[in-house]
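Translate sequence into structure tokens.
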Amino acid sequence: MSDPAPPPSKYRLSIRRPVTVAMLFLSLLVFGAKSYQDLSINLMPDISCPTLTVRTEYEGAAPADVEELMTRPLEERLSVVNGVVEVSSISSAGLSEIILEFTWSTDMNVAMQDVRDALDMYTPPQGINKKPAILRYDPTLDPVLRVALTGRSHNSVRDRDERQRRILGDLIEIREAAERQVKADLEAEVGIAQVVVKGGREEEIQVLVDSARLKSFGLTLGNVLTSLQQQNINLSGGSIKEGKTEYLVRTLNEFQDVEEIEDVIIRVPSGDQHRLKDLAEVFLGEKERETIVRVNGREAVELQIFKEGSANTVEVCNTLKDFFGFSRRQGFLEKLARKAAEHMPTERAEEMLAEFERKAKLAEQLGTRLPEYHQATLITDQSRFIVASIKEVQQTAIIGGLLALFILYLFLREIRSTLIIGLAIPISVIATFVPMFARDVSLNIMSLGGLALGVGMLVDNSIVVLESIFRCKEEGDGILDAAERGTSEVSGAVTASTLTTIAVFFPIIFVEGIAGQLFGDLALTVTFSLIASLLVALYLIPMVASRQGAALSATESEVWLIRAYFEARGQSGTGKIAALKRLPLLGLGYAREALSQSWNETAGRALHPNESDSAAPSGALKLLLKLSVAPLAILFVVQLALEIVSTIFVTLLFAITLLVLTGIWVVSKILGVVFFLPAALFDYSFRALRVMYLSVLRKALVLSPLILAAVAVLAAHAAQTALGLGSELIPPLRQGEFNIRIEAPPGTRLEDTERRAQLVSNIVGSYEEVETVTMQVGVEEADARSEQGENIANLSVKLVDPERTSAIQDELIEAMRDEVIARMPDNITFTLPTLFSFKTAVELQIFGDELEVLRAIGEEALDSLQAIDGLKDVELSLKRGYPEIIITYD
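Result follows.
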């Protein structure tokens, strides 16, 4: 009884249907390339902490009043919101901030609506006109681009007062243009969420009332204010109906100039009337500054541009840099898109060209919005560090792949097998972009790090499958049977090995908290790449390995170059060179034959019938038949055009294939010569290593107790060393930029803080490695925060050639710190750009009810902790309605 036939292999499809498998993987490559083009590019994954901040302004109120009238009532209402884990608050002069922390599983959109509903039920105390603002904590809401706009230097003007007046005039004009025009134009762009204007100078109508005269008439400032409000109106006056027409009526009586304000009538209690100019001086003056911005010592207007949460940081920054005329390097895909849009007359290409032209017009329009003399300086650019980091990771992955191929070549010593294995890397990587796009995973350090991590593992499966195929071939199987049996025998082991690796990374996506959001992209990328490499190893590699070399033969239906070459060689005495010379002549003969055959198959036989045929028509009937079959000539032209196109395409494809195969042959011969000695040396060393390993292994088995004891000692030493290692969530980013925070004593005026900050700016700017120093003193009223004020100054320092200076950045910071601290008594902190808005690394909180007692404890603790390096500040704050002292460290 014969053995039953083995069941059909599930991998037979990839071997018996190579075209189908090739088309499937080509489709994956096309979709992968498109997905890569549409993936957003960011430095890190989106990190959405479940935290909301409720900020309420109470102008002129003391911290105790803010805490009593606003913070505690709001805390009582907000603490009952679903999902709240902890409620903390900070009450400062004129400002209350309540921080709500939620569980990680909370839907923040629902939580925000619940908080908004709770705030709607809160009745603020008298004197508060602004509603509480809800801010969602998001580390990505830092400005992606900061631009400084400066005016003319006016150094040629000798008169100091005149020079200062002109500088102020430039700043006023730039600020007004930026607020009224540039801000609106930029915020209308897709991807730009908000543009904040800071610094510069602003004009305002100032009314300086003479208090003595005002008192002599029995008036108060309230009477003046009421008169101004009543006589500066723009109100609806109802409507008037006349016949079938209805007219809307408005009362327009707004002030147009200073003279109209001076002529405002003020009524005194005695019944007399006086004009405002009799009681006060009215003039167009300068608004008191809330923020001062300087770039390299020159006062400027700063634009802080924030992107939308889902926008691509790099694309937004590139668009903005084009608008402001900053130089940048265009990416390969962008260049390709522009070239394709210029040369492809398609609807999509026209849309792309229209978008390019629109952006060019907007850039030109922005230039006209601002004064011609303005100068734009790029302060910070998030995309620069993102592009550099992404590029470095990409280069690392590419170099790793090339090294993997080189090592494979040293082992295999055969270019064809190396190229087959090499297919696994790019195909697996490109196919990974498809599920990344479906899962909305951006290109960031973590996801690309996952790709780089998986590059080394991508070739493992393919190596195992290919080695099994060649083993089966050596055992006597045909190439098709060897590919099928070899794949089937190792498919289980390869799948199990891949799944065990996936089982390590995939569960990370279920981790909650910052760690889960950080490493989720890495886990998904490694998982997707390993699944793609498994599919490549089990289906593509067998298909490629089972292909035999194509024989150089042809029939009349195949490539005419091959047919002509063999026809010329078939003639006696014709050599290879002579055969190549005869190709054009034979090709013309083939073209004549094809033309004649096409004519006969379409219209020739009908237009020129055989005269000897008894059924052939004659006379008028023949003429009528020719006219009726005349449209066949059109069919002949169409068929001839299709044949020409087909012949040209097949000829080009053959030429390209021949060039590629020739290049591979040449490369293989060059590699064989160049790496002959290294490969031979490697082979000899590897064999020696195997012999030595066997010898060492035998000795180790004999001395196994001693080996185990040594391993235990090394493990204990490693554990002890690990306990002494530091730990942090994200290492500091050295990108050629750093910040300096100057905190003067509370109550310091804005001008005095500016003087202190200017001194630090001059010290830092004296270093030749520094390109720009941007100084911001104070805070805008619309951007008020509890940790900022007139006594706070922030300096942003940008180094020249960041790729070079980032290596010596720490040494520069230490030198600057020593020089600045030696000359400034204020609290000065040097910080690097961070991914999170954590103020300090350590906070010591002391709870209690008596503020004075707590302050005394904090001051005593401060005196005893002065010797500790990195001590920053002691702050009086409130948490859950109770006072606390926060001792912070750098």
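Note: The radius of gyration is 40 Å.
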